[in-house]
C-alpha cells in the first residue's frame, strides 16, 4: 500500500520587512560555491519566521538540499575530529550503552522492523547526560574546581547535575520561576544549587551566562558545543554496533537545538553513509526544518511547548553547520501523533515516554506510511521519559485522536433561541 500524495509545501516569510524567498520547489538544488559559506552566518539579527510558514503533510521528508556538498570550514572541528572525539568519549563513566530493542508489535503492524534505541532507560531518563558529561569530564581540574553553570528546566539540567555529582564539582542550575517544583526538586536532590529566576528560558540563560562570567564558572550549553555533540554522537556509534538483521534504512532522531541529530549524523554518515538520518520535529516547533529550508539559521516567532524537550526557537550554529551537510531531511508530526506514539510505546514495552521522547517514533511511523516503506530496518531514538504525570490525562485523550479513533469537532452556535435544537438535528444526520 504505497500512498504517494503530492506534498503541499509552501514557504513564505510573513514578518514585515523580511525578505520573501521563492517557493520551496523553485529553489534550485545547486550548491553554493565551495568555500563560500558566508550565507550561513548572515550579519545582523536572525530572520524571524513563523512555524506555520512551511506546511506539508506529516510523513513527507522535507529534504535538505545542501546535504553532501561539504561542511563549511568555519566550524570548530572537522568530521574526522568529531569521529575521534566520539570514539574516545568518556560517557561510559556515567551513561549506559542503552539497548536497541525490536518493537515486535509495531513491526508487525507497520510491516517494517522497528528498532528502538532506548535512551529513555538512561540514568535521569534521557540521553542528555552523555553530552554534558563528555564536556565536563574534559575540563581541566582548575576549571572544574571553579564549578559549572547551566540554564535549563528540562533534561539538560539533570544531565549536568548528575555529571557534576560524579565529577565532584559544584553545579548551579538556573531555571525560570515557572518551573514546576517536581523538576527543580529532582535537580536539587542530585546536589546542585538551583536558582529560580526570570519568567522565560531566555532570561534564565542571560542570568546564567552573566554569573558564569562573574564567578569563573564554566557555562555548559544544552546543544551547541562540539563536546556536547560528540557525547550525543556515542548513540550513533552504539546503533552501528548493535544493529542486527541487515542494513538500516533510516535512523529517526528528535530535533530540538540539533545536538543529538548532529552527533548521530557525524558518526553514522562517516561509517555507513548509505543510512538515512532523518530529523523529526513537531509542526509547531520546526526551527531546524525552516533553517535547512532557508539555508540559514532562522528564529521562530513562536514555538509550541507540548514537546517541551524540543521547544527551541533557534537551532545551534555548530549543530546547523553539521546538519546542513549530513542530515537527509526532516519529517514533521502533530501533537496528536506524538500522543498516539506514547500509547504505542506503552503497549509495546510498558514504558511511558515524554512527548519529545516519542517524537522519533511518531516521525518514523508517518514516514513509513507516507512512502509505503516495507520490510526494511528502521531505528527510532526514544530519547527521554521525563513525563510530567499531570500531562498523562491529556496524552491519553489525544492518543485516540492521533489514531483517528476519535475526532475533535468545533462549531459556532449563534446565541439565539432554537440554536441548540438545530445543532442536534444537524449532528443527528452524521454518523457520530
Ligand atoms: C527528551 C529529549 N529529546 C530530544 C531532545 C532534543 O535534543 P537536541 O536539543 O540536542 O536536538 C531533547 C533536548 O533536550 C530532549 O530532552
UniProtKB/TrEMBL annotation:
Key words, A-Z: Amino-acid biosynthesis, Branched-chain amino acid biosynthesis, Isoleucine biosynthesis, Lyase, Pyridoxal phosphate, Repeat
Family, similarity comment: Belongs to the serine/threonine dehydratase family.
Gene Ontology biological-process annotations: isoleucine biosynthetic process; L-serine catabolic process; L-threonine catabolic process
Catalysed transformations (reactions): L-threonine = 2-oxobutanoate + NH4(+)
Keyword S-adenosyl-L-methionine: no
InterPro entries: Ser/Thr_Dehydratase, Ser/Thr_deHydtase_PyrdxlP-BS, Thr_deHydtase_biosynth, TrpB-like_PALP, TrpB-like_PALP_sf
Cofactor(s) of this protein: pyridoxal 5'-phosphate
Transmembrane feature ranges: none
GO MF: L-serine ammonia-lyase activity; pyridoxal phosphate binding; threonine deaminase activity
PANTHER family, per database record: THREONINE DEHYDRATASE, MITOCHONDRIAL, THREONINE DEHYDRATASE, MITOCHONDRIAL-RELATED
EC class: lyase
Pathway: Amino-acid biosynthesis; L-isoleucine biosynthesis; 2-oxobutanoate from L-threonine: step 1/1
Tryptophan synthase beta chain-like PALP domain residues: 96-384
One Pfam family this sequence matches: PALP
Record-given protein name: Threonine dehydratase
Listed EC numbers: 4.3.1.19
Domain of life: Eukaryota
Amino acid at each position: 500500500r504505497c500512498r504517494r500524495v503530492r506534498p503541499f509545501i509552501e514557504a513564505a516569510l510573513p514578518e514585515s520587512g523580511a525578505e520573501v524567498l521563492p517557493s520551496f520547489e523553485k529553489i534550485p538544488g545547486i550548491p553554493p560555491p565551495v568555500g563560500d559559506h558566508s550565507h550561513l552566518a548572515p550579519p545582523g539579527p536572525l530572520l524571524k519566521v513563523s512555524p506555520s510558514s512551511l506546511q506539508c503533510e506529516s510523513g513527507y521528508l522535507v529534504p535538505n538540499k545542501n546535504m553532501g556538498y561539504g561542511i563549511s570550514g568555519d566550524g570548530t572541528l572537522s568530521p574526522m575530529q568529531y569521529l575521534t572525539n566520539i570514539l574516545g568519549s568518556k560517557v561510559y563513566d556515567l551513561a549506559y550503552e542503552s539497548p536497541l530493542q525490536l518493537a515486535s508489535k509495531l513491526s508487525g503492524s507497520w510491516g517494517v522492523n522497528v528498532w528502538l534505541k532506548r535512551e529513555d532507560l538512561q540514568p535521569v531518563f534521557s540521553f542528555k547526560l552523555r553530552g554534558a558529561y563528555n564536556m565536563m569530564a574534559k575540563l581541566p581540574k582548575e576549571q572544574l574546581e571553579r564549578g559549572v553553570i547551566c540554564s535549563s528546566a528540562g533534561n539538560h539540567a539533570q544531565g549536568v547535575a548528575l555529571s557534576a555529582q560524579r565529577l565532584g564539582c559544584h553545579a548551579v542550575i538556573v531555571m525560570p520561576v515557572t518551573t514546576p517544583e517536581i523538576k527543580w526538586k529532582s535537580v536539587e536532590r542530585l546536589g546542585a544549587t538551583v536558582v529560580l529566576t526570570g519568567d522565560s528560558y531566555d532570561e534564565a540563560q542571560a542570568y546564567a551566562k552573566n554569573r558564569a562570567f562573574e564567578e569563573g564558572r564554566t557555562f555548559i550549553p544544552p546543544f551547541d558545543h562540539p563536546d556536547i555533540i560528540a557525547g550525543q554522537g556515542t548513540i550513533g556509534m552504539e546503533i552501528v554496533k548493535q544493529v542486527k538483521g541487515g542494513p538500516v534504512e533510516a535512523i529517526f532522531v528528535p530535533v530540538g537545538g540539533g545536538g543529538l541529530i548532529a552527533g548521530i549524523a557525524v558518526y553514522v554518515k562517516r561509517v555507513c553513509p548509505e543510512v538515512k538520518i532523518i530529523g523529526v520535529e513537531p509542526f509547531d516547533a520546526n526551527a531546524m526544518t525552516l533553517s535547512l529550508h532557508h539555508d540559514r539559521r532562522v528564529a521562530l516567532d513562536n514555538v509550541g511547548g507540548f514537546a517541551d524537550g524540543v521547544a527551541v526557537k533557534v537551532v545551534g550554529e555548530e549543530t546547523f553547520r553539521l546538519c546542513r551537510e549530513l542530515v537527509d531531511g526532516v519529517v514533521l508530526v502533530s501533537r496528536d501523533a506524538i500522543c498516539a506514539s506514547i500509547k504505542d510505546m506503552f503497549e509495546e514495552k510498558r514504558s511511558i515516554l515524554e512527548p519529545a521522547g516519542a517524537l522519533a517514533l511518531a516521525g518514523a511511523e508517518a514516514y513509513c506510511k507516507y512512502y509505503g516503506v516495507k520490510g526494511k530496518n528502521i531505528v527510532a531514538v526514544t530519547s527521554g521519559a521525563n513525563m510530567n504525570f499531570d500531562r498523562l490525562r491529556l496524552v491519553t485523550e489525544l492518543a485516540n485522536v492521533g489514531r483517528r479513533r476519535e475526532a475533535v469537532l468545533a462549531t459556532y452556535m449563534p446565541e439565539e433561541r432554537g440554536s441548540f435544537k438545530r445543532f442536534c438535528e444537524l449532528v443527528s444526520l452524521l454518523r457520530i
